[in-house]
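Structure first, sequence second, as always.
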């Protein structure tokens, strides 16, 4: 229990990460801050590579140094935050990356992407409900491959329109039964009607992961073998995660993992 005498740490340092101003399908909405004491303890002020450390990286180093109480930095290779975390990653001491987290609002992705993302058991998801939220608005999510083929994309757009039409037809028919006296709730009606919706139905969600969990996701989904839509999403996530914690993601390639890049554990 927090007593009245508890001394709280001072407010966090201003982070150089800002929330995205332009709406996009991936928006960073929360991330970890650390107290000034953590920075003071690590004392990186004279580090020439310190061009504005990120709190998430700093927290991982602080956690790692706590393990061995290794606050002095005799080895120049691990004296910087970048060097320290490179060593952590090389030695697969990934648990220190579990302390910091990043939360994203993800919108306009498909239900099939949701099925894949939700397989990652260390992520926390809050997902738009098809039982509570009417599904009769919005465009289908176009798979990346189809963007090259407008005529084939039209097939999907027609199928989507048809599915929304069927959805509305079921809702209207069930509401008529409700009006006739059948005991049906809106939620029951929507949950039955959603069964005609397509995999391309768009969905919104808030997703939180610690840095290790995000590394797991990226290792598998930022890969040429992954589904194209989630691979694109993984690329967007990686770009933002590199702003939150550049040194914790420094070993990731700039292109998806594939034949010429080594896929490593996270
Ligand atoms: C290219 C591709 C194709 C796929 N195809 C299919 C498919 O056809 N069918 C299908 O069902 N799935 C498929 N998947 C999903 C895949 O099987 C995994 O469910 C998904 O990638 C999550 O990975 P994960 O289980 O390793 O990791 P996460 O759930 O992200 O967990 C991370 C790591 O934690 C450890 N861990 C987590 N839970 C446990 C546990 N219970 N016991 C022991 N260790 C644990 C493991 O080391 C694991 O790698 C595919 C994935 C990819 C990338």
């Amino acid at each position: 229990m927090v007593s009245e005498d508890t001394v709280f740490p001072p407010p966090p340092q201003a982070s150089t990460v800002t929330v995205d101003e332009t709406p996009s399908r991936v928006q960073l909405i929360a991330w970890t801050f650390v107290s000034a004491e953590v920075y003071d303890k690590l004392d990186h002020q004279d580090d020439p590579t310190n061009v504005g450390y990120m709190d998430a990286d700093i927290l991982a180093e602080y956690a790692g140094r706590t393990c061995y109480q290794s606050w002095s930095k005799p080895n120049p290779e691990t004296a910087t935050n970048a060097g320290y975390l490179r060593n952590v990653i090389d030695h697969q001491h990934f648990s220190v990356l579990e302390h910091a987290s990043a939360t994203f609002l993800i919108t306009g992705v498909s239900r099939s992407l949701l099925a894949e993302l939700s397989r990652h058991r260390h992520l926390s998801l809050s997902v738009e409900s098809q039982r509570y939220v009417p599904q009769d608005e919005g465009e289908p999510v176009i798979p990346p491959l189809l963007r090259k083929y407008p005529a084939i994309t039209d097939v999907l757009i027609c199928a989507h329109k048809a599915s929304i039409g069927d959805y509305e037809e079921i809702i209207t028919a069930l509401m008529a039964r409700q009006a006739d006296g059948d005991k049906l709730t809106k939620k029951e009606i929507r949950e039955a009607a959603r069964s005609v919706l397509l995999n391309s139905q768009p969905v919104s969600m808030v997703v939180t992961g610690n840095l290790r969990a995000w590394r797991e996701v990226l290792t598998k989904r930022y890969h040429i073998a992954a589904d194209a839509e989630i691979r694109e999403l993984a690329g967007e996530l990686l770009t933002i995660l590199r702003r939150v914690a550049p040194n914790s993601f420094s070993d990731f390639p700039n292109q998806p993992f594939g034949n010429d890049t080594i896929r490593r554990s996270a």
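Margin note: The longest strand covers residues 101-110.
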